[in-house]
Every structure is written in C-alpha cells, then in structure tokens.
Amino acid sequence: MALVRYLKPEHIYIHCPLETKDGVLEWLSMVVAESGIGIPQESLREKLFEREQTMSTGIGNAVGVPHALVEGIKGLHAYVVTLEKPIPFDAVDREPVIVVIGLFGDPDTPNLSLGALATLGRILRDERFVQSLWKARTKEEVHRLLSEKEEKKES
What is the DSSP letter of 67? Predict the structure, then answer.
C-alpha cells in the first residue's frame, strides 16, 4: 500500500517541541482539525485518547503511531511529526519516541487503515531509517525518505 499517497507535505511537522504523550495527542488532534479534515478537534482528541486506553500506539523502535477511525472522515489521512527530543510514550519496548505518525481513517473502509498500519510496521522496523526521519531538516526530506523506503519495500 502506498502510504505516502495519503501524506501531504503540509501534514509533516519537523522538530516539534512536545514533551509528553498526552501533549502529542492534544497537539495532533488540533493540527488535524485545523488541516481542514472537517472533524472537530474534540472528536479527534476523544478518539485518540480512547485508542490509547485500549493499548499504547508506541510500536517500539522510537516510533508512535496514534490512529483512529472517525465518523465523517473520507479516506485516509496521514500526519508525520518528528520531535525535538525523545519523549516517553508507553511504547512496547519501553523506549522513548522520536517520530510520530498519526493516521485518521473512515470507519467504513477500515482495511485502508489496516493496510497503512501494516506498511508502517514494515518500513519502521529499520532503526537507521527512523533516525534518518528524525534528523531530516525539511518536510520535503521526510516525504522523500518515506517515498523511497516504501518503493524499496514494495519492489
């Protein structure tokens, strides 16, 4: 699945000075709501926190993938956030997170979101790749890195 198809360069945020997992979820719900997705911040926030209560989306290898299926969203929308410094995220490996990828999908097409999560699981296993995302200086660089990594995994 071509995840980068659902990632607009303007939905990439570099070196954000967020300090807590809750702060990331709050901020992410705000920027997603402000991106014109058509869903109020409070609805997005509620879905993200509800999902985290079920199980942490800190998937290990310094990556968090908060995600939610939200009524009213059409298709899939991806957002990438690199953090200024590592933060605790209740990750499965108990290590801090430096890269966060938020996914927001339509409950009527859950396979789209599951496919995106599977793609992320494959491409984010590479520790050097995650470090290169974190060290990227521009949105364009992050987008290029993800595109190239996806192409390699699909071929």
Answer: E
